[in-house]
Specification:
The structure holds two protein chains of two kinds. Chain A is of the alpha+beta class. Chain A has three helices and six strands. In chain A, a hairpin with a 2-residue loop joins β5 and β6. The two termini of chain B are 24 Å apart. Classes of the chains: A alpha+beta, B alpha+beta.
């Protein structure tokens, strides 16, 4: 650490900037650039629809990636043989209700709502609506994402089908 | 699918789906071809006939005993199109009750799961005990003398039986016993259950429910089809290779090990493959991390002590994708998944998938099992989404079924000795049973 971490100094505007920037990178499939927003121990969770507040160690999630698997997921998503996302879906994510909900050491907790619209040729439009619960960490390189959790509102995935892109 | 679609004119059928000049499954022993007419994937008439000839006649998986551990526990779920309450009554007996009030029909249990002393209809307040018997009727003095009050309990499914805690129902009261029906599939359920020192497996919390815009039978084929693995799942294979797993095809084979497809009788089938992809039960791969090695050695030691070397190797070192006719799949591969699927329309199914594990697992073992599950399986896994895509592309292609009417399932037909898992002999087992039941229907 070259400078003291002070999560109390982070403003909501800075958090919004990060989340909106992340949304742009994900929607434009700039996944290598997106990876630079993550800490090198970042994890990514999508809990099951019927147990949105569960722990991935005891409950079957839809996605529970540590950084190793998250890197592999990005390798897969960039591969034309990732059939579920080739050609890549057109996604558009709207992020609202951004709030800083707590802090712990150099880490802050953030909540936000999301609505992601996904379009693919020959498929009906699909929408993924829910809330983010992220943990952001102050690092010498700026604010980074240490944990991202996308919790879907729907009772079941149902017509959403696969969660083959990054929520 | 709208009901109005049923009865739409069919180009060839005239209702005789399996008549001499419109057979849907055609096996030619002389020329060694096996073909399925794509009408079976698109026709509302065929779907309606399947409901009557297959889903109303076969043993259909409803749930696992571990999902209703305690008296009063219940799960509600659609089974073969019916709303079903799967529960354990206050005396401890497992039940499957039709979730429809005897008065005017409303479902009497709306929650997905829970524990209750009674089921309650919000419409007029009729209540039922957890064994289905009628508990109370508001204002019941208005019913005429002799009115059959006692006969107004929730209707149980005609048959409910289990094999090693896997519960199946049957809407045909005259069906053969479940164990007779399961035939050789029992041995393969045993191989799954033998992972547990006490022989008790449990459904792990967290369910994956997702739709596929494709005919339900395509998922039967896909679940046991090893031919597609190299092409459909190359990104998963890359992930395994990047993680240090050897994915080099065995000499003369498409996959790293030579595996087989097997006919288990009564339309049930399985793959049976020497493992290369790791198994939380006693087959370490680098994905699990070095720290897991000693723990997995200990699991294996327990297996060997309890089952002997040969049986332990059978349990630990093979993976098997088991299909119990018509629509239950138990994949004992990178982890264990139990999944079933029901048609919503000819081109639409709803899949429900669970993870299964030994009740004795430690927290670390359970976490490893769930982590291994998500390497491959499920709507966010590294493989299943590509299966979904493959099936949906097939369904899109079936729009040309009149001009391109036949799907080919002839792989391995010339081999009488053994059928590889990359052949289609085990998939033909499903289709022969399907055809037999569809032809036998009234």
């Amino acid at each position: 650490m070259t400078k003291a971490a002070d999560p109390g100094a982070v403003t909501r505007a800075e958090v919004e900037d990060l989340l909106y920037h992340e949304a742009e990178l994900l929607d434009s499939w700039r996944l290598d650039d997106w990876m630079t927003l993550l800490t090198d121990d970042c994890s990514y969770y999508v809990p099951p629809n019927d147990k949105p507040d569960a722990d991935h160690r005891f409950t079957l999630f839809t996605i529970a990636d540590d950084i190793v698997r998250l890197r592999e997921r990005v390798i897969r998503l960039k591969d034309p043989n990732c059939h579920a996302e080739y050609p890549p879906s057109h996604t558009r994510r709207l992020i609202t209700n951004v709030r800083i909900t707590g802090s712990d050491g150099d880490t802050i907790s953030v909540s936000a709502n999301f609505a992601i619209f996904r379009h693919r040729r020959n498929e009906p439009p699909r929408q993924f609506v829910g809330r983010y619960r992220h943990r952001l960490r102050q690092t010498p390189d700026g604010l980074k994402i240490a944990e991202r959790r996308a919790i879907l509102d729907a009772e079941e995935l149902g017509p959403m089908g696969s969660v083959s892109f990054l929520l | 699918m709208e009901r109005a679609d049923i009865g739409a004119p069919e180009p060839h059928g005239n209702g005789h789906l399996n008549g001499a000049d419109s057979r849907l499954v055609v096996e030619d022993g002389e020329n060694l071809t096996f073909q399925v007419n794509r009408k079976v994937f698109v026709s509302p008439d065929v779907l309606e006939a399947e409901h009557r000839a297959i889903f109303d006649k076969c043993w259909i998986y409803v749930g696992h005993a571990s999902e209703v551990k305690n008296p009063g526990d219940f799960r509600t779920r659609p089974v073969a199109g019916r709303p079903v309450i799967f529960c354990r009554d206050r005396k401890g007996e497992v039940r499957a009750l039709l979730n429809s009030c005897r008065h005017r029909g409303a479902i009497v249990c709306r929650e997905r799961e829970g524990n209750t002393r009674q089921f309650y209809c919000i419409y007029h307040g009729w209540t039922y005990n957890t064994d289905g018997s009628l508990k109370g009727i508001p204002g019941d003095d208005a019913y005429p003398p002799g009115w059959d009050r006692q006969g107004k309990g929730l209707v149980p499914v005609p048959r409910l039986e289990h094999y090693k805690d896997f519960y199946f129902l049957n809407f045909d009261a005259d069906a053969v016993p479940l164990e007779t029906y399961l035939a050789g599939a029992k041995d393969y359920i045993d191989l799954v259950v033998d992972q547990s020192p006490s022989g008790r497996m449990e459904i792990i919390s967290g369910v994956q429910e997702y739709d596929i815009k494709a005919n339900w039978k395509l998922l039967v084929e896909n679940s046991v089809d090893d031919y597609h693995l190299v092409t459909t799942h190359s990104t998963w294979l890359n992930y395994m290779r990047n993680s240090g797993v050897n994915i080099t095809p065995a000499k003369g084979h498409m996959l790293p090990t030579k595996g087989f497809g097997k006919d288990l009788g009564n339309g049930h089938l399985t793959t049976d493959n020497p493992n290369y992809r790791g198994r939380p039960v006693a087959r370490w791969i680098s994905v699990y991390g070095e720290e897991a090695k000693a723990d997995i050695d200990a699991i294996r030691k327990e297996l060997v002590e309890r089952l002997g070397e040969a049986r332990a190797a059978r349990v630990a070192d093979t993976n098997r994708n088991l299909c119990i006719f018509p629509n239950l799949v138990i994949n004992d591969g990178s982890s264990v998944t139990v999944r079933n699927f029901f048609p919503i329309g000819p081109d639409h199914m709803r899949v429900t998938a669970w993870a299964l594990g030994p009740v004795e697992e430690t927290e670390a073992q359970r976490a490893r099992r769930l982590h291994a599950f998500l390497t491959f399986y499920g709507p966010g896994g590294f493989a299943t989404p590509d299966d979904v895509t493959a099936l949906e592309l097939a369904q899109q292609g079936f729009a040309a079924w009149r001009e391109v009417p036949w799907s080919d399932l002839s792989r391995g037909l010339g081999n009488s000795q053994e059928q590889l898992a990359t052949d289609e002999g085990h998939i033909r087992v499903f289709w022969r049973k399907w055809s037999e039941l569809m032809e036998a229907r009234p």
